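TA notes. Do not distribute before section.
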Amino acid sequence: MAETRPYVDWDLMNDFMIDVFEKYGVPREDAAICADVLLESDRRGIESHGCNRFKPIYLDRIKNGTLLPKTEIEVVKETPTTVVIDAHDGMGMVASHKMMEMLIEKAKTYGMAGGTIYNSTHYGIAGYWTTMAEKEGLIGISGTNARPSVAPTFGVEPMMGTNPMTFTMPTDEDFPFNFDCATCIMQNGKIEFYERMGKDTPAGCVVNKDGETMTDSGKILKDMRAGNAALLPLGGLGEETAGYKGYGFTTIVEILSAALAGGPFMKDLNGVDEDGNPRMYKLGHFFFVINPEFFMGLDTFKKTSGDILRGLRASEKAPGQDRIYTAGEKEHEAWMERKDKGVPVGDSIQKELIELRDTLGLDQYHFPFED
């Protein structure tokens, strides 16, 4: 389907987001990191985690006090190959950037490195952090827990987060293997995106207290906030379509995100206190970096991984299908399509951008959709 939304130049959007973050108290260097993480989502076509979340997930949380604009990064434990960081309720993206810088250097020296962050906040797309490793010829692995929204198999109560488990690996192609997805069928950001676009959520992704699936995106978001609906793990409802596998992966991410640092988990991450008032989210993230040079070498790794991916794409296709994709390919094509055009913004985002500009007095900005 041809894109009908207007585009905003990448540099314009980047500069605007940095200036807005700074107005909200985020130091300029940190604001540049945060803006780049958000825009990387849109570059890859992952709009659920890009500009759509700029205001509701970051700015609004800074405003209501559940996200601190200045990030105090405390390294509470470090060895030659491991790091534990307390983010002190600051910007999860800023703490994660520091973590990856440290782990990349350790993996270059020792072959492998791992770290975990606690008392953190939303860190954007997990694939941003794993790609930091890939750009250095390394393998990146990351995951994060989140506010409870996913029910266990045979359950209807939201207990764990969407909990992505992400891998990025170098190849000899123009793009890496980049597997970046939640361990549930549908993540919160996608449903928020559907609601903004006035679309229903596909059936079979969300369950209500009666064990029935829901499709009304607005009602889903309302009921989920009230704890009366839950996302389903990969595989869906029950065991017949292997929902227990997604449930298991979600649990793995929850354990690694919380237990390695001894941080909070599940219902303690819901962002509200016992009286229903907003409180800090206290999220946890984990990161691992592997250096192929300490095995059979980077060139061997890149060629073998490339051969595997090319073999998959060249395999026999199902009737009516003319193409097989590998992870990261669609994201690469989204960037090729958008790099000279900019980020597409729908009506609701346009209104948010104009309101932010006018409220904050950033009169130097003029958006193309205003012409």
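Switch to the second chain here.
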Amino acid sequence: MCQALMEIMSEEVKEREDAAAIAATDATQRSDLRNLMEALNYTAEQAMDILKIPQEKRESLLANL
């Protein structure tokens, strides 16, 4: 019983760590996008092309830019 509870808690902690890592990556990418757009006068699309951001992720980054 105790082992099962430890496994469940461990999985939950892992999921939270993964979510935090994704959020940090997204924040970094948004910052990088803003920097490229500002410093080099690039459009968001040009900056995302340079950073090789996948198409499926672009919309969510733009929404929070």
